[in-house]
Amino acid sequence: MKNIFLGILFFTCSLGFSQTQMTAGEVTTFKREIANQADKTTSITADFEETKHVSVLKNASKASGIFRFKGEKLLWQYNAPKKNAMLFNKDNLKIKNEKGKVTSIDLNKNKRFKQLQQLMVGSYTGNLFDEKSFNITYFKNGTTRFAVLKPKSKDMSKHIKEVTLTFLNNEDTVSEIKIVESSNDYSLIKLKNKKLNTALGDNVFQL
């Protein structure tokens, strides 16, 4: 469950010297564009590739799967090298492990996964940048824009050091996510073949 939690956060490359911090005006424009896109977005589908770097391991581990988002429903499903999934639906989270066992979690009673839901869903609804749960710094590099989020709560800080959301080519939806753990191990998730506003039936969001 821990690996899924760290892997889902679920969406970049490390900040380099060529990147510059956005001005206050640029931040305002950026946040407005993200919110405007969210208002027009009814669904998102994508494939994803995840690379996890752990300091004690010589080689990074890799995984892939599918991502689906619609309304209050968010599915993050790993297909390789093992099959498992997380499905958020309003105040409920279902986790399916590689053996097919499904566990249900009441998000109102689990603060950690509730914060995870807010992070993931907020990335696509435009509600991420309220800065209630994170200290956020904004950067740019050509047509690529970055939002670096550092958790304010001590509970989340025990697990997550920072999350970088990358918006490529002036797009207004997330394309890459980098999650740095408190140990400085990190996961890099890239969304591929991203499509907006495709028809998604309820059967898509079933484990």
UniProtKB/TrEMBL annotation:
Coiled coil: none annotated. Keywords: Lipoprotein, Signal. It comes from the Bacteria. The keyword Lipoprotein applies. The keyword Signal applies. SUPFAM superfamilies: Prokaryotic lipoproteins and lipoprotein localization factors (SSF89392). This is Outer membrane lipoprotein carrier protein LolA. It comes from Paenimyroides viscosum.
